[in-house]
Amino acid sequence: MGATELTRYEDLKHNVDHLRLIQFGITVADVSGNIGGTWEFNLRFDLSTDLFVSQSIQFLQDSGVDFDRLRRDGIHFDMFAQLLSRVVARHRNLCWVTFHGLYDLSHTLKTVTKRPLPPSVAAFPSVLGIVFGDVVDIKYMARFCHGLRGDKLQVDKSKARRGWEGIRDDGAAAGRVRGKEREELRRNELTAESKMNKLINPLD
Question: pTM for the complete prediction?
Answer without folding.
Answer: 0.76
